[in-house]
Amino acid sequence: MSALSQRPDDAAVGLTVPHESAALHVTGAALYTDDLVGRFRDVLHAHPVQAPHAHARISRLDPTPALHVPGVVRILTAADVPGLNDSGVLGDQPLFPAEVMHHGQAVCWVLGETLEAARRGAEAIAASGVDYDPLPSVITVREAMAAGSFQGADRHVQRGDVETALHDAAQVFTGETEFAGQEHFYLETHASLAVVDESGQVFVQSSTQHPSETQGIVAHVLGVPDHAVTVQCLRMGGGFGGKEMQPHGFAAVAALGATLTGRPVRVRLTRAQDVTMTGKRHGFHAAWRVGFDAEGHFTALEATLTSDGGWSLDLSEPVLVRALCHVDNAYFIPNVSVRGRIALTHKTSQTAFRGFGGPQGMLVIEDIIGRCAPQLGLEPHELRRRNFYTAGQTTPYGQEVRHPDRLVRAWDTIAESAELDTRRAEIATFNASHATAKRALAVTPVKFGISFNFTPLNQAGALVHVYKDGSVLINHGGTEMGQGLHTKMIQVAATALGVPLHRVRLAPTRTDKVPNTSATAASSGADLNGGAVKDACEQIRARLDAVDDGAGLAWEDLVAKAYLARVQLWAAGFYRTEGLGWDAATMHGHPFKYFAYGVAAAEVEVDGFTGAYRTRRVDIVHDVGDSLSPVVDVGQIEGAFVQGAGWLTLEDLRWDEGDGPDRGRVTTQAASTYKLPSLSEMPEVFNVTLLPDAHEDGAVYGSKAVGEPPLMLAFSVREALRQAAAAFGPPGVSIDLASPATPEAVYWAIELARSAVPATPVPYAAGPAPRDGSPAAGDVEPVSAPPWQVQT
Ligand code: MTE
Ligand code: HPA
Ligand code: MOS
């Protein structure tokens, strides 16, 4: 057991405690960025002028019409930027653009005494202050592929000899998989509030997962050093990756406005603005060839993944890298050649979203398994289990898969606790006696790499004060977005100092307390900041132990004695993850400290008339190491699973893809048209268990990251829907299911199954002609008739 992972007796980590702000959340007393506005006088409100074109050159921009609107104070345009006119770090995201790159992009901002005045001012500019020369646009990823519209670096993960392996495979299949993105729909939309103090210091309150980067971008827009800008994040009403990169521009608008007017400036997006202006999960297209041996083991995978990056790079490159590092999911594939590229489309700039490419990579392999299993004559769960990594095997990018036995343990635990054999028999009986409703049960595994692929990001800091009265105040570099990071950090500090939880208070995240932080992302918040908090506390503890000298003084007495002895009672802590290495060019190395594992079994019932479905039961066993905070972790698993199920089954993000004047507009701008999971879509029975005996040597107090991995357990629901649709037709038929698997998509999958004619030896038949949104039948095709040789 490592010094990092070892727990003392009576540790405060591992205790079942509520979220530190639970009472504030449920009573409405918790403060979010925009709640602070009322505390300031003379606040100006900012409103964007949004472009009505997917792609256009701005030929004229005249703010005068807004200046005639009562209450309008100032218009912010590119001419006002004293520093760099860019809201990103790669130089491709102008804050005030000369060329409109997506429908709804802000071309300038109006500051008003009230939000209504600013809105009217923006309306006046939109009506008569701005002219556009429309340009041709690329909206869908397929259009981008046809037009050769790409951005950023292509990537390639490669191992072995795919062509030979496919040639020698017992069976080879080809197919395409295309799936949609996802709107974050955090309850709190983007918000920033900026003030300039008496010494010229810019102070920005921002709903940001990445305060240090927000600080850096505000500073470069203003043309001042980082030390002139402080960013604070009290907490977020959800981030989910959507506030890793996207808050920067809004913070910069607020800060620029405050600098130019000397008054506090508030930016808070409406829901429609948030949906139309900010990036989402990347949708992907994948084309693949896959080979299996006679026993149903993968022999080779060849694929090209194209992500829909939207108008600028944003985080698309690291998202793509993570996707390529997760196409294997839990399965050993000896020969691999997977290429990735990023489409440039005239849409919002797609960004981080829980899983960060991992879900997209895994969807490809889970789709392949779901579609190929019937043609291999294997139950999908059997095909999955047969291909699990075993000890000593490595991923396609060269990292050894440690603890694959945990996956087996989770799998076997579920089989028993969820009585899978019995229920499969019950489902068969149900399906045999019901012509218009079918049930199915699917089990899917998750293996998710923990650490930022880009090694330098795996560092964190903390600042811990012990006051003379023995009370403790901690700061760390991570942000709280509901995930319970602050709760865990209080538990870590109490453990490391050996004090009760109530002695520790945690102060909001600020860049002037802990500098140069990484985003709270990649699920690494607790690993990284926990390491830093523990380090700071242990420095203090060591000094106190020297003062105590075996006397066994009570905490308060010891602290008082140390103070009188002029012992430093505060410390800065630092942590960096050891043992990582990654070559971005060759896509090879050991990018992850460890893998998080989980298994889910989902049972659904599908209606044959409508495609409507219910999730009858879900069982999850998930590996969080030795949990730092069990209720928080179970909440993360439940929430991630439901969010994943939303992506895969309900949330149908639509853009106007037609040639009319609204081309490129997001048509799902509100909860009325964008169906989110709610209580009624929760699994009727939902059992979440933490994998026991799962100590992780490489992380703080033996724990594992939890924020993102369980999202991908939701593949069990999608695969269960596929199997239930298949149950309407003859056995042995490959069923293509669109993603999201909305009731409509499930209906078309049922139609596909019903019209399929079982044939031998290739039991595959053309389905009905594809309709809008429907999958094309015959997509998974064996490349040739037996003996299943690849044609070259
Ligand atoms: N949980 C809640 N309630 N709200 C969120 O916004 N974000 C998720 C996850 N869980 C999120 C959440 C994402 S995308 C990540 S990367 C992690 O939390 C980040 O926090 P952590 O590193 O502390 O787990
Ligand atoms: N996850 C989340 N955010 C990131 C990552 C990652 O792997 N890499 C860079 N930013
Ligand atoms: Mo999470 S997508 O890494 O913010």
Give descriptors for this structure.
792 residues; alpha+beta; Aldehyde Oxidoreductase, domain 4; 3 domains; 19 helices; globular; binds ligand MTE; binds hypoxanthine; binds dioxothiomolybdenum(VI) ion
Description:
- With about 800 residues, this protein is of the alpha+beta class.
- The chain has three domains: about 20-30 and about 460-575, Aldehyde oxidase/xanthine dehydrogenase, molybdopterin binding domain (Aldehyde Oxidoreductase, domain 4, 2-Layer Sandwich), CATH 3.30.365.10; about 35-135 and about 185-275, Aldehyde oxidase/xanthine dehydrogenase, molybdopterin binding domain (Aldehyde Oxidoreductase, domain 4, 2-Layer Sandwich); about 155-170 and about 290-450 and about 595-790, Aldehyde oxidase/xanthine dehydrogenase, molybdopterin binding domain (Aldehyde Oxidoreductase, domain 4, 2-Layer Sandwich).
- It is about 30% helix and about 20% strand.
- The protein is built from 19 helices and 27 strands.
- The strands form six sheets. It has an eight-stranded mixed beta sheet. The protein has a six-stranded mixed beta sheet with strand order 7-15-14-13-8-27, sandwiched between helices. Strands 16-24-25-26 form a four-stranded mixed beta sheet, with helices on both faces.
- Helix 14 (about 485-495) links the parallel strand 18 (about 470-475) and strand 19.
- The longest helix has 24 residues, at about 525-550.
- The chain is globular, with a radius of gyration of 27 Å.
- Residues about 760-780 and about 785-790 have low confidence and may be disordered.
- The chain binds ligand MTE, hypoxanthine (HPA) and dioxothiomolybdenum(VI) ion.
- Ligand MTE binds near residues 238 and 481.
- Its EC number is 1.17.1.4.
- This is Xanthine dehydrogenase molybdopterin binding subunit.
